[in-house]
Design goal:
33% of the residues lie in helices and 23% in strands. It is of the alpha+beta class. It folds into four domains: 100 residues, Uridine Diphospho-n-acetylenolpyruvylglucosamine Reductase, domain 2; 119 residues, Uridine Diphospho-n-acetylenolpyruvylglucosamine Reductase, domain 3 (2-Layer Sandwich), CATH 3.30.465; 100 residues, Alpha-Beta Plaits; 75 residues, 2-Layer Sandwich (Alpha-Beta Plaits), CATH 3.30.70. The strands form four sheets. Strands 12, 13, 14, 15, 16, 17, 18, 19 and 20 form a nine-stranded antiparallel sheet that branches.
Length: 445
């Protein structure tokens, strides 16, 4: 194992600590933060890390980072490990769990801002703000286990991206531990503070390759008093997308999805495509939108799945959760996320020839293959998907792949030479030792 302090060249491979050395590393870190906070990974975590450490504060993370830099030991911040388990080709030495850092640091309902440690889950944070009628309006898969750190690091987003934006739109301040164990701050705790703007955007979606987020400040929003869900099936995906476009142009929807068969259990046949349109507001707003949706949908063919065509109350919320928010693609043999201009999404999806779950108003979709693929077939498939995305003016990222095929393609698009050179310089500046989740980002960074 390399032990020098020389700066690692951008994109260089850093030695992964051998399994037999894990016990020695565990002992050393145990001496820093306590042996009771070092443990073996569970089954899901073992796919991406060798051991788990559970620091209780940023200062302990700083000590861990300094230790790892001295020995060129790789590490990565870890939530539930779901995302990394599907994209890492080999485990890093240490997973830094922030489960002991799950406090709400400050909450100002009148200012509609909240500061929380990175280990708190989205569900726990929103439960604490619910009595004040407020929420962080993001809806990642299974918010009960999605931590704030994971939300930022992997840029998770769900159906509400259409109306509420994504985490990068809500983030107003950040705190993370970086090179040399330095505790770095960006932004602030008030919405009007724009200091650190670039730093926050840089950490969002960086997959822990630049440092370990320990705390974040967000602007929050009121919880809509009422929610309704309109559902309609079509026998052609083009008809479903045309209907979605009509609704999106006419109404301020909360979310808008089109799904390939046979995803919804109630689809009448294997060829049915389902449109789900959610809308929120007070009673007057709900009533107006419901009438408008029924008028528009009534002339678009297909058929409603409820007598009124619109679900309300608990039925609407439960359906939204299991059919939309909690759709899980990470255990499929091959899945990717495509993002193109919304007007080009339907054509791009059709050209990909795969199953899909489309956020029709946002131009984003998850596409997937159910059956097993050889490495060569997977490489060809991803290359074709990428060509389609690029020709539509967008991009594509692989979000899940079976272990035997992960070496057949790059998970991220490769940007132009100038952009990649800039990204490598940023990696070298923020992580000169190359220890933060190496090889798990654009261009092998």
């Amino acid at each position: 194992m390399r032990r020098g302090r020389r700066t690692a060249p951008p994109g260089a491979r850093i030695t992964i600590v051998a399994v037999e050395e894990s016990s020695r590393i565990a002992e050393r870190i145990g001496a820093l933060i306590g042996a009771d906070r070092v443990r073996a990974p569970d089954a899901a975590e073992a796919a991406c890390v060798g051991i788990i450490v559970e620091p209780a504060n940023a200062e302990e993370i700083s000590a861990i980072v300094r230790f790892c830099e001295a020995g060129r030991i790789t590490l990565v911040p870890l939530g539930a490990g779901r995302t990394l388990a599907q994209i890492r080709r080999a485990p890093v030495a240490i997973g830094v769990s922030l489960k002991r850092m799950a406090r709400i640091v400050a909450y100002e309902p009148d200012d509609m801002t909240v500061v929380a440690e990175a280990g708190i889950t989205v569900a726990a944070l929103n439960a604490a703000m619910a009595p004040h009628g407020q929420r962080l309006p993001v809806d990642p898969y299974n918010p009960e286990v999605t931590t704030i750190g994971s939300l930022i690091g992997a840029a998770h987003a769900g159906p509400l991206r259409l109306s509420e934006g994504t985490v990068r739109d809500l983030l107003i301040g950040i705190r993370f531990v970086g090179h040399g164990g330095a505790i770095v701050h960006g932004g602030g705790r008030v919405v009007k503070n724009v200091a650190g703007y670039d730093l926050m955007k840089m950490m969002t979606g960086a997959f822990g390759t630049l440092g370990i987020v320990t705390e974040a400040a967000f602007k929050v929003r009121p919880i809509p008093p009422l929610y309704r869900l309109a559902i309609k099936v079509f026998n052609r995906n083009t008809a479903a997308f045309e209907a979605a476009r009509t609704l999106n142009d006419a109404l301020p929807l909360s979310h808008l999805e089109v799904m390939a068969p046979p995803i919804p259990e109630w689809a009448a046949a294997q060829h049915d495509f389902t449109l789900m349109a959610g809308f929120s507001g007070n009673q007057d707003e709900i009533d107006h939108q419901a009438v408008k949706i029924q008028e528009l949908m009534g002339g678009l063919g297909g058929g409603f799945l409820a007598d009124s065509g619109i679900l309300a109350g608990r039925e609407a919320h439960v359906t939204y959760e299991w059919a939309l928010r909690d759709r899980y693609f990470y255990k499929l043999p091959l899945a990717a996320q495509i993002a193109v201009p919304p007007a080009r999404l339907a054509h791009a999806i059709k050209a990909c020839g795969a199953g899909f779950f489309a956020h029709a108003g946002s131009g984003v979709a998850q596409i997937y293959i159910h059956g097993e693929l050889s490495a060569d077939d997977a490489r060809k498939c991803v290359a074709q998907w990428r060509e389609i995305a690029h020709s539509a003016g967008g991009h594509l990222r692989v979000i899940a792949a079976a272990p035997p095929i992960r070496g057949a393609f790059d998970f991220f698009d490769t940007p132009n030479d100038g952009a990649l050179k800039l990204m490598r310089r940023m990696k070298a500046a923020f992580d000169p030792a190359g220890i933060f989740n190496p090889g798990c980002f654009v261009g092998g960074i």
